[in-house]
Amino acid sequence: MPLDKDSVQKALGQVRYPGFSRDIVSFGLLRGIEVTAAGKVTVGLAVTTSDPKIPKQLYDEIEAVLKAAGAVDPEIAITVTVPKAAPGAAAEAKLPADAGVGKVKHIVAVASGKGGVGKSTFAVNLACALARALADQGRPGRVGLMDCDIYGPSVPLMIGLNARPQMEGDVLLPLENFGVKVMSMGLLIEPDAPVVWRGPMIMKTISQFATNVRWGELDVLLIDLPPGTGDAQLSIAQAMALSGAVIVTTPQTAAVSVALRGAAMFGKVGVPVLGVAENMSYFEGPDGQRQHLFGQGGGLKVATALDTELLGEVPLDPAVRQGGDHGIPVVVSHPDSNAARVFKSVALTVLRKLATAA
């Protein structure tokens, strides 16, 4: 069977970047694949390294997998950029041991692909539910929430935080409420100030949230991803050692299709999807009758398509909205409500899956 771009890319997915378990495709190192009608294969790669052995090792491994796939005398071009020491590099090297995510046991992304599905509300309540579950196990203060939705940072409002983080040297100290450590752009800017930034500035901020924040020893750090599958989402998925992702959707078809596209990104970078949560699943009236205002079964469709678990169906409950507006998540304000019980169940399932995968 003749080679095409897809088969070449599949073959390249076998090549691991030296020192990492992730392959060169998921790392985003490919700069082009060409396959001529005569079957000539050309591959372009770009790496940033000061180790001269890495390009040679990559070349040899790429050549081997391409020849094994049937390519004859493949052409491989590797562009190497040597990283320059940044002015603050020396200061970063002196950061304390508890700065950054080095002592975080599990990092879990909360993603939707689509805006407007209540992803941040879900992330805040899941974080609080995780904190309570771990506190019940004798492990209080072991949950963090990194709000990477730079343009619309709503986490501080929803979790009842409005102070400015303190600094110790070059390290930011996260604020804490309801047993959850939080860092968000919303804590660093004025409430009404717009964030009018281009991609590089956003990525620098997210990088600082991961390296210059004193997260300390955590069992779980949730990352509230911005909607979409652009540079910010892909870079976070590639740069941080994610233990998994939770996909949030609503029942309607539009949200389902976008959630599937968003989840596909995690597949490309080798991050497992822990499960799917359906938000705003139904409204339950005083008589106990459920009304499926946004349709029914969307979360199950996504979970089935991804071959993963439907973690739970969160009802459309006014207490959830009120909790977000007043800074007291429903898990805390109405712990016996149906919505809170779903969040607690999802938290326990996530903890179980993380423990099994560890």
SSE sequence, one letter per element: HEEHEHEHEHEEEEHEHEHEEEHEHHH
Radius of gyration: 22 Å
Task: Name the beta content range.
Answer: 15-25%
Number of domains: 2
CATH topology of the largest domain: Rossmann fold
Numbering strands along the chain, what is their spatial order in the largest sheet? 8-9-5-10-4-11-12-15
Largest sheet, strands/sense/barrel: 8 strands, mixed
* N- to C-terminal distance: 40 Å
Number of helices: 12
Q: In the CATH hierarchy, what is the class of the largest domain?
A: Alpha Beta
Shape: globular
Poorly predicted spans: 85-93
CATH superfamily of the largest domain: P-loop containing nucleotide triphosphate hydrolases
**Structural class based on helices, strands and sheet pairing:** alpha/beta
Mean pLDDT: 85
CATH architecture of the largest domain: 3-Layer(aba) Sandwich
Using DSSP, what is the number of strands?
15
Which bin fits the share of residues in helices? 25-40%
Description:
With 358 residues, this protein is of the alpha/beta class. The protein folds into 2 domains: 5-81, 2-Layer Sandwich (GMP Synthetase, Chain A, domain 3), CATH 3.30.300.130; 104-357, Rossmann fold (3-Layer(aba) Sandwich). The protein has helices at 5-12, 53-69, 89-93, 119-136, 155-159, 199-211, 231-239, 253-268, 298-305, 318-326, 330-333, 338-357; strands spanning 30-35, 41-48, 75-81, 104-111, 143-147, 167-168, 171-172, 175-177, 180-184, 218-224, 244-249, 273-278, 283-284, 290-291, 310-313. The strands form 4 sheets. It has an 8-stranded mixed sheet, sandwiched between helices. α1 (5-12) crosses α2, α4 (119-136) packs across α12 and α6 (199-211) runs parallel beside α7 (231-239). The longest helix is centred in the last third of the chain and has 20 residues, at 338-357. It is globular.
